[in-house]
Design a protein that fits this description.
single chain, 199 residues, six-stranded antiparallel β-sheet, two-stranded antiparallel ribbon, 2 helices
Length: 199
């Protein structure tokens, strides 16, 4: 395996505001039989206001003697799966997201009542909010004042717990108050028009 090397080159396309940190390794790195080569590459958005969309990419070059082969992924010619959007418009701090990535929120098994409640709501509503493969994903409401208003409308004074519900009882809602799909943001003016699920 003498003479076998790998080299990586990073790409930030369509934005001068993309800053690349130190490469995972410097120059062509030797690789021996059954060895591994790994590392992290930090990229950041240099601006703190406005927004930018960037396509990240990498080019891996392998060499053995006089032979050379390249493999590229991401970059300008790939799908939007490699697109990163950065802005300071969702919260007071700037940040970046991979727009096409949809995270999955998992309710831990120790919260079995919450899991059951969410499952019943998702199944019974025709839009199946947040149900992967059946409904649209929930989107976050970053404004705490709006989220509190959502909660105050759905969990208002009309909430009456079912007598069969063990104490202590509380009003919980789904879709969550901190989502843009909250009942209050869909036109609900009072929790009394909402379906109640005792758990």
């Amino acid at each position: 395996m003498a003479g076998f090397t790998v080299e990586i080159e990073g790409q930030c396309v369509a934005s001068s505001a993309c800053e690349e940190g130190i490469a995972p390794w410097t120059g062509p790195a030797s690789v021996t039989l059954l060895s591994e080569k790994e590392g992290a590459w930090q990229r950041s958005w240099k601006n703190t206001t406005g927004n930018a969309t960037m396509m990240l990419g990498d080019k891996l070059t392998t060499r053995y003697g006089t032979e050379e082969a390249d493999h590229e992924w991401g970059g300008a010619n790939e799908s939007r799966a490699w697109e990163v959007r950065c802005d300071n418009q969702a919260a007071k701090f700037a940040g970046c997201v991979v727009s096409q990535y949809i995270p999955t929120f998992e309710v831990k098994s120790k919260y079995s009542e919450a899991r059951q409640f969410i499952g019943m709501v998702q199944a019974s509503m025709s839009s199946h909010p947040g149900w992967e493969g059946k409904g649209q994903p929930l989107t976050r409401e970053s404004d705490d004042k709006v989220a509190q208003k959502n909660r105050d409308i759905v969990c208002d004074s009309t909430f009456k717990p079912s007598p069969s519900t063990p104490k202590p009882t509380q009003c919980d809602e789904f879709p969550f108050a901190k989502s843009k799909q909250s009942g209050a943001q869909q036109g609900v003016t009072s929790g009394k028009v909402c379906q109640q699920y005792p758990s």
